[in-house]
Design a protein that fits this description.
Blueprint: H1 3-11, H2 18-29, H3 37-49, E1 53-60, E2 63-71, H4 73-84, H5 95-101, H6 108-144, H7 147-185
Antiparallel strand pairs: 1-2
Helix pairs in contact: 2-3, 6-7
């Protein structure tokens, strides 16, 4: 997925300045796709150069003027083209799995500490999905007035929940397996002779 297409999708909900788009990321898709404010502004400039968005400058009393972007006809066509094409095969990059692969090179206690941190992060993420994201979807579905959009938003939330739960389950299995191996070995060392 490219940032320009994510921005085109977010601008479809209404004209927006860079700060507005950063807020829309935070309120909607940040848990599976995010961008910094400088990335957003840089990408909006490229999108405008490509003719995908058009901007107008809005003057505000007592505040700096802001550049507000709208999707152009060319941007509509590009967004529709991108939506219709098959998704790219994912190229997973999971740093923790690289560490797990080479885990025998690390003292067992340090490896367990890392797995516990990964588990804690994903457990917190599950809580956030329930307490923050699910209610935000309901709130925005009424504000935007589109129950159909909300159904698709829920699909992405469901994916996030399942992925986080799978990671928590994997961490639990790793922790259990290592603890059982320690009991069998009667030592607190690493997988080999490392401690």
């Amino acid at each position: 997925m490219s940032l320009p297409h994510a921005l085109l999708g977010l601008i479809h909900y209404g004209p927006a300045a860079g700060y507005d788009l950063k807020a829309r990321f935070r309120e909607s898709i940040y848990f599976f796709w995010n961008a910094t404010l400088p990335q957003i502004y840089r990408t909006l400039g490229k999108m405008e150069a490509n003719g995908w968005v058009a901007s107008t400058v809005e003057h505000q009393d007592g505040k700096p003027s802001r550049k507000v972007y709208r999707v152009s006809e060319a941007g509509e066509k590009e967004f529709e083209r991108w939506l219709a094409e098959p998704p790219e095969a994912p190229a997973p990059r999971v740093p923790m799995l690289i560490k797990a692969f080479f885990g025998a090179r690390l003292p067992r206690s340090r490896f367990l500490e890392q797995i516990k941190k990964v588990r804690e992060y994903h457990a917190r993420l599950l809580g956030k999905y329930e307490k923050e994201i699910a209610p935000q979807i309901e709130e925005h579905s009424h504000r935007v007035g589109s129950g159909e959009d909300a159904n698709f938003w829920r699909l992405t939330l469901d994916y996030g929940r399942r992925h986080a739960q799978m990671t928590v389950d994997w961490c639990d299995a790793v922790l259990k397996g290592i603890n059982e191996a320690q009991k069998r070995e009667g030592q607190d060392g690493g997988f080999s002779s490392r401690s």
